[in-house]
Amino acid sequence: MEQEVKKSKGKPILIAMLAALVIMGGIGYYVFFQMPSKTEAVAEPSAEELDKVTVETEEITTNLADQSFIKIKFRIQADNEDAKAELEKRLFQVNNIIIYELSGMKAVDLQGQKGINHLEGILKGKVSKLMQEGKIKRVYTIEKIIQ
After folding, report:
1. What is d(CA 97, CA 20) in angstroms, rounded to the nearest whole number?
2. Helix (H, G, I), strand (E, B), or coil: what is residue 17?
3. Does one domain contain both 20 and 86?
4. Torsion angle, alpha carbons of 75, 139, 102, 112, to 10
5. How many Å apart are CA 78 and CA 55, to the nearest integer?
6. Where exactly are the transmembrane stretches of this chain (predicted)?
7. Domain range spanning residue 19?
8. What is the pTM of this model?
9. CA distances (Å), origin 134, targets 26, 44, 77, 82, 113
10. Which of 29, 85, 94, 110 is buried most deeply by CB count within 10 Å?
């Protein structure tokens, strides 16, 4: 009789363990195969779509903190057409931010991809703070010469 009691206690535990494995397998399958991957690229906007939401700055020539000179130009992407219109009206403020940020940098700070990415990130954040009709999605450096 003791063996029957032991067997009857083991069956519910075995069934619970199998159920837990099936549930964990289902969750694993969903996570691995069904959830969108972070590595999947977000579709880039078309050239026409970009043209509707980007503004090009004038070419800016200014001195850097180490007495070097820089000639630089940007194309700034807003998140919608209303934001683009606002950005066009605020270009003088954008140019001021660019000159202000560059005046505190040295030529070495702007070298390579890391230097450009850093500057673009700073400008994106500062210009976005100005905006009331939207935000800045991206800043593109389209010309850069340091002497």
Report:
1. 58
2. helix
3. no
4. -110
5. 8
6. 12-32
7. 1-40
8. 0.70
9. 42, 19, 11, 7, 27
10. 94
